[in-house]
Amino acid sequence: MQTRCVQTFYIQQEYDLLKQQLLFWCDRFSHCCFLDSQHYSSPGETPLCLAAAGAVNVFTTETNPKELFAEIESFEDWLFGHISYHTLHAQNGIQSPQLQAGQFPATFLFCPETLFTLTKQTLTISTLSPSAEEIWKSITAIDIHTLKRPLPAITFTPGMERTTYLQRIEQLLQHIHRGDCYEINFCQEFFASPVTIPAVATYLHLMAISPNPFSSFYKNDGRYVLCASPERFLQKKGRVLRSQPIKGTMRRNTTDLAEDELLKEKLRSSMKNQSENIMVVDLVRNDLSRVCREGTVRVSELLGLYSFPQVHQLISTIEGELLPGTTLFDVLSATFPMGSMTGAPKKKVMELIEQYEPVPRGIYSGSIGYITPEKDFDWNVVIRSLVYLPEQQYLSYHVGGGITANSEPEQELEECFVKARALQSLWNQ
What we know:
This protein is of the alpha+beta class.
């Protein structure tokens, strides 16, 4: 492991101000990853904010994930980065789609020059640079008011016409009724081009209206993901694996608390949403059982109801004890892509996703996260996210939902708009 200078500084200024200064500082680098729990607490809670900037070692490949993850496992330092949705398609016997030029690589992990752990009271700087003190001074000297930019007016275009979307839901329902699958997550893209946005300012606006526990600001060789994710894909702490799939969504009414409570009860009692969630729980239990000790996989919370700024959601938590000798590649092969973004049975619905979704997902419904030197890790689900490609002047986001036998096409379309509301509202202020 490389020798790092580690120093902890006690915060004198306002916490949110320092967080913004840190974000602007990290954006100076070609590669950075800023992970923020936005004050939410959950099982396996992580620090309030974890950030990494500057790449001194890089692991990336388009062809052989098994070799890549073996190299990663033997590396003895922190790693941050992403795994795209299509990364393990070949291992699942599915042909990977052709992505447009300039998209994110299938997998990318980097060892940061500087690592930050931010709590309410302290900022710990762990750096390969000579002086943590100099980094602290340069961060706290940043005048964020000179860097913030107004957001431009942007209109997004749906990747599918309304009638096309509804027709494809009907086609997927036919597959379900034939018994090809039980549930499938179907997504659509909204895009704008040519556009230029201030990435950090846009992320700060997004966090102001839609803070979520697995949020991230991620920069990969100049490409950006501005992510307001509420969902954890997979965490490892010691020998414990933990997954927290989300299935079941209801809009909120924060101006009428009585109606908001009624909407919560409507979600809680919805058989369609319950069946969606339980099917994914069964899928995740099956995935974890492939790499966990027999008898240790359990559902520690079923159909937990959680409220976020725009939506109420049903979240379940599944845990298991990892088998000795299990590699990172073994874990990912058993669990990725996550069941909440595919469906059941996983291989069949992944084939249907490639058949019916007109735009490859890429980093959307993949994961952003980190691996510690002890080989613990925490990965989110890339949803509620803006993907920005500055060179292509291309801005996009995906939304979708789980299709089951009880799905109504018009209601599925409405759920997409509910999930997109936070992203759309950035441009309607």
